[in-house]
Write a structure and sequence with these properties.
This protein has 2 domains: about 120 residues, Response regulator (Rossmann fold); about 90 residues, Winged helix-like DNA-binding domain superfamily/Winged helix DNA-binding domain (Arc Repressor Mutant, subunit A). It is α/β, with parallel strands linked by helices. The strands form 3 sheets. A 5-stranded parallel sheet has the order 2-1-3-4-5, sandwiched between helices.
Length: about 230
């Protein structure tokens, strides 16, 4: 059961009649700035765009710019569908006359996507753990002292395990198209990265005359670091 907050310029009307047939806890308040300041906590915010699309668009953008991080669903009539675009800042759109099954499904999917996007992003392979949020990496639990580019290189290779990349591809993906340095900088950073991996430098594999790849090992295959 989700806590749903419905924002509408017409509080007396039922914005989504299907909600009354579901078990979610629904609170409907006027779409006014004073009301938004003291709005109750919610898992989902539904904005009523059935009567005034322009106002609904402004409200959706306002909610996003003020830090509203709950999934945002816009309820519209079928005629209003054509006006909705990606710059509204919404997570989904729902017809006001949608049935209970569709309404519930969209709520569940929006909550699932929100939970997935807020989960800590980590990559784990071959004894290496990469935390994308803190830009840090560990080898068997021991922190690796990496520069930003070394971290980016390790992260890119680890997120494409076993795939071979040429030096030109790595230069483009990690350093960017506007980087004017030569491919030698890739070899330099690979060498430095391997040095920091120590006795597990084989994690960054070389494919002769082609490029580099991230080798995947089971925990049993990967030797423990020397302490």
């Amino acid at each position: 059961m989700a806590l749903i907050l419905v924002l509408t310029p017409a509080p007396a009307k039922r914005v989504l009649p299907a909600l009354e047939l579901l078990s979610h806890h629904v609170r409907q308040i006027p779409a006014e700035p004073a009301q938004l300041v003291s709005a109750p906590e919610s898992d989902i915010v539904i904005v009523d765009g059935c009567t005034d699309l322009a106002a609904a668009k402004s409200l959706c953008k306002l909610l996003r710019t003020t830090g509203q991080d709950a999934p945002l669903i816009l309820a519209v009539t079928e005629g209003g569908m054509s006006a909705v675009s990606g710059d509204w800042g919404i997570d989904d759109v729902l017809l006001a006359d949608a049935g209970p099954a569709e309404t519930d499904a969209r709520i569940r999917l929006a909550l699932a996507r929100s939970a997935e996007s807020s989960a800590p992003a980590r990559v784990q392979a071959s004894g290496v753990t990469i935390d994308e949020q803190s830009y840090s990496a560990k080898l068997h639990g021991k922190p690796l002292d990496l520069t930003y580019k070394e971290f980016q290189l390790l992260h890119f290779l680890a997120t494409h395990p076993s795939r071979v990349f040429t030096r030109e591809q790595l230069l483009s993906e990690v350093w960017g198209y506007d980087y004017f340095g030569g491919t030698r900088t890739v070899d330099v950073h690979v060498r430095r990265l391997r040095a920091k991996l120590g006795d597990q430098e084989q994690i960054i594999g070389t494919v002769r005359n082609v490029g580099y790849r991230f080798n995947v090992y089971d925990d049993e295959q990967t030797p423990a670091p020397v302490r």
